Predict the 3D structure of the following.
Amino acid sequence: MSSGAAHRAGAAVVVGGIALYAKKDRDQPTAQPLLAGGLAWLSGTLPDILEPAHHPNHRQFFHSLAFAGIVVHGVYQAWKWEPETDLQKSLRFAGMAVGGAYLVHLAMDSMTPKRLPII
């Protein structure tokens, strides 16, 4: 079973790496990958906050493949969104980072013997 620290570290590395790879202007330095990784680190245990791991069978809807599909759809919609204001740009960035961290958490949980429920 993955620990909270492993979930946070995994989310930070994956989301920060994706943000670095997706950077449009690779010649210009930016803090976005670090910000994305930091936000992912902070939200890497969100599924366990919603459904605390008090017992081995704690994985229910918020740890399910169905909810993973909902999160994927939300991240995709955020990716397609073309924000106009700085606030909208920040919300889009945060939504994608938190959604990515959530998906990393579920991916890590899916590799354990308990796996993820469908619903």
In short: The CA atoms of residues 40 and 98 lie 6 Å apart.
